[in-house]
Design a protein that fits this description.
heterodimer; A: 233 residues; alpha+beta; two-stranded antiparallel sheet; 3 helices; 12 strands; 33% strand; globular; B: 359 residues; alpha/beta; two-stranded antiparallel ribbon; 7 helices
Chain lengths: 233, 359
Amino acid sequence: MRLRRLIHCGLLLLAGTGCGSQSGPETPIFAPSKPRDFTGHWEVDYSRSDNIQTQLNGVVRQIQRDIAQRARNAERGQTMVVGGGESNTGRDIIALAEMAELITAPELLEIFQDAREVRVRREGSFALVCDLTPPPPVVTNSPFGQEICGWDGHQLYFQLRFPEGLLIEHRLTRALTSERLVIQTAVHSPEVSQPFVLHKVFSRYDPNSGGFHCRQTLSRGKVCTTERETDAQ
Amino acid sequence: MKHVALVLLLMCSAELWAQVETDPARVPEGLVLRVLDRPVAEALDLGVVVFDPGVEADDPSAHAAVRRIESRLLAAQLRDTLIESNAWGAVRVIPAPSAVVAVTITAAIEYSDGRQLQLRVRVEDATGALWWQDTLIDISTTADYPVSVNRDPFEDLYREIANRTLAVTLGYDARALSALKTVTDIRYAQSLVPEAFAGYLATLDGRWQIQRLPARSDPMLARVERIRQQEYLFVDTVDEQFVDLRSEVKPIYDLWRQAGRESADYLAAYTVRAGARAIDEQRGSFASMQQVYSTYRSMKIQEQDLFDIALAFDQEVTPTVLDTGDDVFRFTGTLASQYETWRRLLRQIFELEQGRDTP
């Protein structure tokens, strides 16, 4: 994985620190919904999106600050608050960053939205689907994970909880005056006290502007044509 | 499936039969389909009613759409197994119970995923006699996937239905089979013109029995037969839709069932590993997080692919176009309501014809 080559050696210094302050977010409280229209095709804008190496360095610095603070507190005789058992090892932080990279890999989005549902199709991954009929939070359980979603003010919020403590939050935001969409993804691990947070910025695009468009078919896989969609209908 | 070879069996080879258990832990493996060298003497027409999906007809959810698709796919699969047994006359999937067939199989989907199929099955004939009813469960194995062309992970269950139904037929002698066909004909005629065919049948202990027979030269019988052929025309037209549906949906449906089976296997293995505390040692590692995430992603992708196609093919939007030679009819709405509309139309046509013929 690309991230492997970028790892800062200083991470190893964090090995064995063994304490932290938090492990995953609280159950979300949803603000009154002010839905925004996300409908359309979106492509990632790397120039405006977070760099994973930068974020990784930021997480490491934050954990180092936490550790130093606790050490100072301990020297002053203050009680050290032990967290949920996070180890904060370099290995665990790298693992978290790798997961964040994997989860945020989709470069293209296609969003369908009406009063009943928002469906965020992500290229190469599963769609994030939120039923808007009941008030948030909408909880969907399966043996393999739990999804929570709903409008949180003007943001669309998804939370995915998996076995072994992996927790993913996606927060979709779109400014009223801008044709950009931001997805903030926070990945939590029970072994790391800080979530790994990445912001990906998407710009609206026209899938037909390249002179061709593709669609997935059952019999022939991905089929691309220069025929305009309106012509084909 | 399950080490079963298709074996040509004669009617007397009853010792090869197996019973389907209702306890999942004791479900037998490898049921053999009984295949006759020719249909039974008085070959009975058999109707497999589109399965009860167990969801509301107006439920717009993708899950409900999948169940409704399954209700047709599984019925068509059972139809194929019954045809393969070579024991019957015409075997058709019918949208709703009808007096048009001598033997009717109805089934409700109680549970269905890639690992397990559970059906509540009921088989009865036109006299009203209940042949058998039971809840049947089949558990797939990993060897059932990937699903080969013209195979099904739950073939055993269909074979059990075919075998049990055939067993009842084999208990009927030629005279009883002939009587059953006659009752079927009269009951169908009664469904069109109750007053004209009243008195031919009477119920005894809840079963229709013949009291007298209409004259073979009765012109009304010929008209009834014509109408019956028109009803078959609708059923066969709908059957062509099933063929199209299956060719489009079955591949993705099989992949979805395979993903369900693999997910169930993964979950079981995960539970074992977690019980042995092996998971805790890797907790937080990229490998362990990637495994849970990838499993979830794989399951969701297959599910969403199926949901997309199920919603697209949901019967609510499939019109039926019927060309009778003289006219073209177009029906919309649910399959059951289309069928009911056509049958009502046939009754009206019959009444009109009768009015012209009867001064």
